[in-house]
Amino acid sequence: MNGLVLRSAIVAALGGLLFGFDTAVISGTTEDLERVYDIGGFMLGFTVATALIGTIVGALAASRPADRYGRRKVLFAIGILYFVGALGSGLASDLWLFMVFRFLGGIGVGVASVVAPIYTAEIAPPRYRGRLVGLVQFNIVLGILLAYLSNFVIENTLPQDTAWRWMFMVMAFPAVVFFLLLFTVPETPRWLFSVGRREEAVAVVDRTTGSPEEAEFEIREIEEALAKLHGATRVPFFVRQNRRVILLAFAIAAFNQLSGINAILYYAPDIFRMAGAGDNAASLQSVVVGLVNLVATMAALTVIDRIGRRRLMFVGSIGYLVSLGALAVVFFAFDGEFSGFSSVLVLAGLVVFIASHAFGQGSVIWVFISEIFPNRIRARGQSLGSLTHWVFAAAVSWTFPGIASALGGGTAFALFFVCMIGQLVWVVLVMPETKGVPLEEMERSLGIELSEEDVAGAGSGPQGH
């Protein structure tokens, strides 16, 4: 594999590490937030959801600057947002200021979920694309594990009144590293071609391909795809032609969150406490969950370009049903009367759940969404998928504590179980395989190739987002 391609993919994927760290770090601070800011369960849920509201804004706003200013410049902005959000959250003097900085960090997460996979998909050759875009997901779960580990270490080494603040502020250090490393990687050739900077684009292709023949083929593919848009300014998005890929992106993103994954990541220590674990044991068990997440993601990345996206999703869906069904039964059977044995069953159920997610949905979602949209609407398509993902994440994470408290953990896990039956049906009957298909050929294989009539109307028709 070309060294520059690998380095570029790793650097972009560090945005995913910050994404994962920011997602999980708050799990170790929920009790401190309730104590310091004197808030109850509903307000805690809203405080946690503040970052998710930021991710919705970030995902919604990401595509236009990514198309106008380039993928790389937007990645620089993400590094700044993470840095400011981390320091501000840790230093906040009151609840509202804390939520403002969590919101800013959330914008960074939302933008990263759009732009990091696009950057990697556009710079990677087809035969390595699944694994390289999958590096984003690998770094997300690595960030989650590092957040759990960091929380555990800080909780056991620093005084309680300052420990929770440092849990947020440590993220400022990797944010600076990410920002500096971006100076070592190029802009993507597809974006450079799209804005008429052909000489720079050709230079990048020459540096990222293995031979002159491969470079010539890639340049021809990109230019042929862009030639269809000659004279167009911004093609419509919400049109019949794009209906299939829009529904595919919406479905995989919605099912991702209807599994309950983000609610479980945010509230993992609280779930273990519900099952009878002490504070220190709950934090340590969260680290175990993060480690399993990382190992299962590594396993998926070794096979995603060999066995394909659909098979990973199928295996993950079966694992969801087994684990969520078992967790629902355990919570219904032992709710309020947990013993050592039943607590072990909860840990085992969550381990299987996390492994199933990491091997299936977690490793596939960002690869799949970045692949199915054609060049002309890829940024907006990725934005739609990320927006859907974060809207559902906010809804599920905000309502999970209330449902678990009012109706019991068994009901919450049973609802997730029912949703995952829907995902299994969708994978079997609807989801296409995208393994190894060049991005410029994807629209032909999905039946969404731009017609001459579409091109003619692109410059003057209504503009979608």
Automatic annotation (TrEMBL):
Organism domain of life: Bacteria
Residue span, Major facilitator superfamily (MFS) profile domain: 8-435
Keyword Ribosomal protein found: no
Gene3D superfamilies xrefs: MFS general substrate transporter like domains (1.20.1250.20)
Gene Ontology MF: a single term: transmembrane transporter activity
Cellular localisation: Cell membrane
Transmembrane segments: 43-62, 74-93, 99-120, 132-154, 166-185, 245-267, 287-305, 312-334, 346-369, 390-407, 413-432
InterPro entries: MFS_dom, MFS_sugar_transport-like, MFS_trans_sf, Myo-inositol_Transporter, Sugar/inositol_transpt, Sugar_transporter_CS
Topology with respect to the bilayer: Multi-pass membrane protein
Pfam family, one: Sugar_tr
GO CC terms: plasma membrane
Keywords, in A-Z order: Cell membrane, Membrane, Sugar transport, Transmembrane, Transmembrane helix, Transport
Family, similarity comment: Belongs to the major facilitator superfamily. Sugar transporter (TC 2.A.1.1) family.
Protein name: MFS transporter
Native source species: Cellulomonas chitinilytica
Lineage: Bacteria, Bacillati, Actinomycetota, Actinomycetes, Micrococcales
